[in-house]
Write a structure and sequence with these properties.
Blueprint (H helix, E strand, L loop, with lengths): L2 H10 L2 H10 L15 H8 L2 H9 L15 H8 L2 H9 L14 H7 L6 H13 L6 H6 L3 H10 L17 H7 L3 H10 L24 H9 L5 H6 L3 H10 L9 H7 L3 H9 L8 E3 L2 E3 L1 H8 L2 H9 L15 H7 L3 H7 L2
Antiparallel strand pairs: 1-2
Helix pairs in contact: 1-3, 3-4, 3-5, 5-6, 5-7, 6-8, 7-8, 10-12, 11-12, 12-13, 16-17, 16-18, 17-19, 18-19, 19-21, 20-21
Length: about 350
């Protein structure tokens, strides 16, 4: 069996093939998979193959081996994928439960908690195991797990944590950005009360509002901005103050086309604001640079999975065939990619 077949066996859970290959040539235990030098253990742990993980550890593969892509152990990948039993086996084998030094600067507890889409019950179980083995929350894992007391502790012990950016791979988001992204309204309020800067921007210059995927995800933030006298069109719409929004638009008619307001309202599913913007001259087919791609409001409504916003845009003449600048995909393609068949049906001619 060549190295490629070994890695396939580890990924596919083919323990008999892997055992036979290692019996025939024990030196194959430490092979590395290019280009990032993954071990067999990394592959098996990521896929949740507990029997293969145990086989490799029993044969002597170092549980703390670091791959060279993200500079992680197998623990990071098992934790991110929510494989509770594999995480437990790795911890029992002596893997470092802290896992500092990964390129995402999240440590093992961050990989266990900060990736969206993971099973929440598995996340909680894995985080608890890591804490019991000596890991401590940082501000991003505490936000991800909705732990207000931990956020308070962290800021009390390390006030600069309030403005600590994530890694370049997360575009240097600040804790307030991350709380909006994770839809943690209580923690948004807490972070602001503790002193987080509501005007802070990420590495692309975006404010926290750019990360909202739900209509009220960051309402408290915009209420704070309004009370501080910072009431632009976006904030007025975010707090449903349409009288003020109309006055702003009367003074500055072109503001309806600035800053991707329609795109972001579509992304968060604020359909009343979407309809208001469209009725007041916003272009349903406008392209706007959202992070690293020029997209239409329809792309953003699909990203947020908001059928009411999709319908409002279509009724206003939005073209579902327009493509984004990075993936060369239209809104239908985005709906297919994100596996949203109801939106695909709405968008198809």
């Amino acid at each position: 069996m060549d190295d490629r077949q070994l890695f396939e066996a580890a990924r596919d859970g083919n323990i008999e093939a892997l055992r036979s290959a290692l019996d025939a040539d024990p030196s194959k235990l430490t092979v590395r998979d290019p280009p990032y030098a993954w071990t067999l253990l990394h592959h098996a742990a990521q896929r949740g193959h507990l029997a293969i993980v145990s086989l490799l550890l029993d044969r002597g593969l170092d549980v703390n081996t670091i791959e060279q892509g993200d500079h992680t152990t197998a623990l990071h990948w098992a934790a991110a994928a929510g494989h509770v039993d594999v995480v437990r086996r790795l911890l029992d084998a002596g893997v470092d439960p802290i896992g500092d030094g990964d390129d995402h600067e999240l440590a093992a507890i961050g990989w266990a908690s900060c990736w969206q889409g993971a099973d929440p019950d598995a996340q909680r179980a894995i985080v608890q195991m890591l804490v019991e083995c000596g890991a401590r929350h940082h501000i991003f894992s505490a936000i991800a797990m909705n732990l207000g007391d931990e956020v308070r502790r962290i800021v009390r012990e390390d006030r600069p944590a309030l403005e600590r950016p994530m890694s370049k791979f997360e575009d240097y988001r600040l804790p307030l950005h991350f709380a909006v992204q994770m839809n943690r309204p209580e923690l948004i309020e807490l972070l602001i009360r503790l002193g987080a800067n509501p005007f802070g921007t990420d590495g692309a210059g975006f404010p926290p509002a750019a990360y909202a995927m739900e209509v009220d995800a960051d309402r408290r933030l915009h209420e704070v901005l309004r009370n501080a006298g910072h009431l632009d069109l976006f904030t007025a719409l975010a707090v449903d103050d349409y009288l003020v929004a109309a006055e702003i638009l009367r003074r500055e008619p072109d503001t309806v086309s600035r800053g991707g307001i329609l795109h972001l309202m579509a992304k968060r599913g604020h359909v009343v604001a979407v309809k208001w913007l469209l009725a007041n001259g916003a272009d349903a087919n406008a392209l706007w640079a959202h992070f690293d791609a020029d997209v239409t409001p329809l792309h953003m409504a699909v990203l947020g999975n908001h059928p009411d916003s999709v319908r409002a845009l279509l009724d206003a003449g939005a073209n579902p065939g327009l493509k984004d600048s990075k993936h060369d995909s239209d809104a239908i393609g985005w709906a297919e990619f994100f596996e949203r068949p109801a939106l695909v049906a709405m968008l198809r001619p």
